[in-house]
Amino acid sequence: MAEHTVKAFDEDITRLRGLIAEMGGLAETALQDALEAMARGDETLAEKVIAGDKKIDALESEVDKLAVRIIALRAPMADDLREVIAALKIAGVVERIGDYSKNIARRIGQIEDRKRFEPLTLLPAMGELAGEMVHDVLTAYAARDPDLALEVIEADNKVDAFFDSIFRNLVSHMMENPATISSAAQLLFVARNIERIGDHATNVAEMVHFAATGVYPPDHDD
Amino acid sequence: MAEHTVKAFDEDITRLRGLIAEMGGLAETALQDALEAMARGDETLAEKVIAGDKKIDALESEVDKLAVRIIALRAPMADDLREVIAALKIAGVVERIGDYSKNIARRIGQIEDRKRFEPLTLLPAMGELAGEMVHDVLTAYAARDPDLALEVIEADNKVDAFFDSIFRNLVSHMMENPATISSAAQLLFVARNIERIGDHATNVAEMVHFAATGVYPPDHDD
């Protein structure tokens, strides 16, 4: 590439990374807010999470447009092209992470008698772990850090273990207190949404590893 | 676009769709083979699934390259561009669906005494349902059929219900037969992998709906 093209390309890539970072930040906040709203039964905060998802969707479109512009105008090669492709795919996955937080927020009005559920103390911890995965994978993307991406992939096992423990807890709870089955089922969906956030962060981590090194990481067990 | 460019673009898009269809076909077969290998304890078939995943990965790279070429050379607009972007993102998700089947195949050697597990009769049915979702979502993509994409999104609820039932069954099994906990845990991972295949097919369905209509479908509950 000619020097001015290199400079223009670098500026474009910096903007692309900025958009992904912004999307990721919003997805992280959405998850935190959704879990806080659930812990407090705060439906106003839940509404905020639901409304805020539109901004994440809009950012995905912006990433798509900019990535296309970069490919069409700058004709990047090798590493640079890999990074642009990764950005497109990562945006698609982060958008979906936002959806899960919105799904959690939607269930808040349907959980009654929240003090009776032990998982309500486990869910925030599980959510925090998944939130850290989202945070770390975006840091790994920004820093092109394949080792941090591998750590995110490892962390998914912990989120899965939380899910198993919460699931078992809720199932025994339902058996012992049939009257609470409907609320317990809502919490089950919340746990599953958090588990899927972890899974999607893992998916992003694979793409970050690929963008940084040109190879996908060895498969983890999940 | 000039007429010859339109023709060249149509040929490129047809090839792109062909590659996605091929990836999807391989991912579907991988899932069927992994489940059959599990049902029969057939480690040779499991090895075939594991080895075959490389072909899916290679096809993803081909999709990436062709999509980039189309954007750079043909400068597609609006609907056409949306389809190319969707192809890139869908390839990323189908690759991950392939990974889950490989993960299932890897566990087959670790399940002992398979006749004792009732879920071994439920897992193939759950897997078949997830396989149908993968099949249908690729048909929806090929036919640009947003209604079929919505049906796939609906079907995910059934896969989730299977997962819940298998999970509960395995947990009681573990409690009653502590000696089988390790094999039961392997089956739990298999069920989870199938659940995730359903979730990723849903993700593809959203992208298909977007490519066909320009809007993402209303969020489903999951």
UniProtKB/TrEMBL annotation, chains A, B:
Its main location: cytoplasm. Residues 20-108, 125-208 form the PhoU domain. SUPFAM superfamilies: PhoU-like. Keywords: Cytoplasm, Phosphate transport, Transport. It comes from the Bacteria. InterPro entries: PhoU, PhoU-like_sf, PhoU_dom. One of its GO terms (cellular component) is cytoplasm. It is found in: Cytoplasm. GO terms for biological process: intracellular phosphate ion homeostasis; negative regulation of phosphate metabolic process; phosphate ion transport. Belongs to the PhoU family. Homodimer. Plays a role in the regulation of phosphate uptake. PANTHER family: PHOSPHATE-SPECIFIC TRANSPORT SYSTEM ACCESSORY PROTEIN PHOU (PTHR42930:SF3). This is Phosphate-specific transport system accessory protein PhoU.
